[in-house]
């Protein structure tokens, strides 16, 4: 059963990969393109692009892959196999975290981790900035979004929509 | 927060909105989380928000979905967790189905690429604003500031593994804040 093999592939990649969509890409490519030949490399790249232009997590690209190979059932199975591992594992992790949250070991560790998260996010902003701020208009969009979010109560929704429309008009 | 049981319906509605409008990947979703859950609804504090981000990074699977599950679980146990997943994934699932259908039929993606270029730039601004808001709330003493700067440099300059950095920051916190915790002031 080819479709079950596909579901299992998606399931175990999501079960064992820490670090998100981009970390999964090499694994996914090895299985879907090199091993089972379900997609060509070009189709694989297209599936990444679709994962990026749609809202939500990048791994939603699995739905496109499932649809492309097996139709609607492939898409449905792909979405379940992508997120079921998370539901199981994170629920268990959350349960124990909340239980031990008030122990001094967890408290002290998180006092160190929280500021580190801020530093890591700042580094991500810079990395992404290098990739997506290419000229004056994109620079203005980035600076404008920052200023609007910090100084007004406008929702990110409108900023993303506005930036998308601006992009379509300029380029 | 752990005592408040937020209604499933409300959790689902917020995550449906986040799932539908958070274009631009994982990091723009973080900015939606911060705005909707911390600032607007006050379901989470900035501290708890940072914890949920870490939880998402340290568990296998899509980090942003995992962050959502953690938040859902703290708000209303397993049902809250399920509400966040379904809410977050449903809009993009439907959208990807539609795009897959159209794409396989027409193969046209140039307009989408132009839109993506604008969105990509806005995402940088969104993350910067999350950093700014969190730093103002959480970086109040020199030890936290040092950890934030070191983590930033390790990733931006030395390209070290972010998960390793989170673990290292935990150990650093354990050593630096051990005294505070034992004396009872958090």
Primary descriptors:
heterodimer, A: 171 residues, mainly alpha, 2 domains, B: 186 residues, 8 helices, 81% helix
Number of strands of chain A: 0
H/E element string of chain A?
Answer: HHHHHHHH
Number of helical segments of chain B? Answer: 8
Total count of helical runs of at least 4 residues of chain A: 8
Q: How many strands, what sense, and barrel or not for the largest sheet of chain B?
A: none
The chain-level mean pLDDT of chain B equals: 85
Give the CA-CA distance, first to last residue of chain A.
Answer: 46 Å
Mean of all residue-level pLDDT scores of chain A: 88
What's the number of structural domains of chain B?
Answer: 2
Silhouette of chain B: globular
State the domain count of chain A: 2
Beta-strand residue fraction of chain A:
under 5%
Class of secondary structure makeup of chain A: mainly alpha
Radius of gyration of chain A: 20 Å
Low-confidence stretches of chain B: none
Low-pLDDT parts of chain A are none
Overall geometry of chain A: flat
- State the end-to-end CA separation of chain B: 17 Å
Structural commentary:
The complex is a heterodimer of chains A (171) and B (186). Chain A is mostly helical. Chain A folds into two domains: 2-97, no CATH class; 101-170, no CATH class. Helices cover 83% and strands 0% of the residues of chain A. Chain A has helices at 2-16, 21-35, 41-53, 61-70, 72-100, 104-132, 136-151, 156-170. The longest helix of chain A is centred in the middle third of the chain and has 29 residues, at 72-100. The termini of chain A are far apart. Chain B has 186 residues and is mainly α. Chain B has two domains: 8-137, no CATH class; 139-186. Helix content of chain B is 81%, strand content 0%. Chain B has eight helices and no strands. Chain B is globular and about 65 Å long. Chain B starts with 7 loop residues before the first helix and ends with a helix. The chains are: A mainly alpha (171), B mainly alpha (186).
């Amino acid at each position: 059963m080819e479709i079950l093999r596909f579901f299992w592939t998606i399931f175990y990649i999501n079960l064992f990969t820490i670090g998100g969509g981009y970390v999964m890409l090499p694994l996914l490519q090895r299985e879907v393109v090199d091993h089972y030949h379900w997609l060509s490399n070009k189709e694989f790249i297209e599936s990444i692009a679709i994962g990026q232009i749609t809202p939500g997590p990048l791994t939603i690209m699995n739905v496109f892959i499932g649809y492309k190979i097996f139709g609607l059932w492939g898409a449905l199975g792909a979405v379940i196999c992508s997120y079921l591992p998370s539901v199981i594992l994170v629920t268990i992790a959350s349960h124990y975290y909340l239980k031990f949250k008030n122990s001094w070991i967890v408290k002290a560790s998180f006092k160190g981790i929280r500021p580190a998260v801020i530093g890591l996010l700042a580094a991500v902003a810079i990395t992404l900035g290098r990739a997506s701020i290419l000229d004056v208009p994109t620079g203005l969009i980035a600076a404008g979004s920052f200023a609007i979010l910090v100084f007004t109560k406008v929702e990110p929704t409108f900023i993303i929509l506005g930036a998308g429309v601006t992009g379509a008009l300029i380029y | 927060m752990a005592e408040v049981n937020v209604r499933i319906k409300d959790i689902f509605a917020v995550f449906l909105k986040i799932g539908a409008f958070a274009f631009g990947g994982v990091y723009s979703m973080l900015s939606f989380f911060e705005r909707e859950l911390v600032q607007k609804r006050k379901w989470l504090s900035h501290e708890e928000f940072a914890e949920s981000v870490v939880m998402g990074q340290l568990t296998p699977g899509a980090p942003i979905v995992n962050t959502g599950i953690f938040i859902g679980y703290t708000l209303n146990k397993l049902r809250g967790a399920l509400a966040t997943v379904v809410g977050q994934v449903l809009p993009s699932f439907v959208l990807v189905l539609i795009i897959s259908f159209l794409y396989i039929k027409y193969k046209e993606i140039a307009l989408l690429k132009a839109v993506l270029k604008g969105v990509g730039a806005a995402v940088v601004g969104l993350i910067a604003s999350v950093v700014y808001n969190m730093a103002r709330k959480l970086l109040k003493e020199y030890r936290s500031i040092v950890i934030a700067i070191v983590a930033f440099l390790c990733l931006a300059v030395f390209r070290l593994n972010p998960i390793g950095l989170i673990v290292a920051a935990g150990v650093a916190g354990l050593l630096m804040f051990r005294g505070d915790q034992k004396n009872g002031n958090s």
